[in-house]
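QA checklist item 7 of 12: single-chain prediction sanity check.
[x] sequence parsed
[x] length recorded as 89
[x] structure emitted
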Amino acid sequence: MHVHSTSAEHTLDVHLPKELSPEMVTVSAKKGNRLSIVADVWYRENNSHYEWDIVFPPRDVDMNSIRVILAEGHVTIRARRMHRHSQFF
């Protein structure tokens, strides 16, 4: 998995077999700023199950902004970062 972060968003890119279709991939938002990605190529016996759990720092990502793109053997996940306002006392 390749992760690229900017001040605006996190982008995660995973290489998977090209025969993987969208219905074989499940992405779930979980409690505690966690994201679970499961991919199963159900008709293959070997190298058919892939799974990742991603934990974002508290209040770093807007979990409602997560977008998943599946194309040509890549799963790309984009998560917008929440803006932090600094306060000076």
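[x] summary fact logged: The radius of gyration is 15 Å.
[ ] second reviewer sign-off
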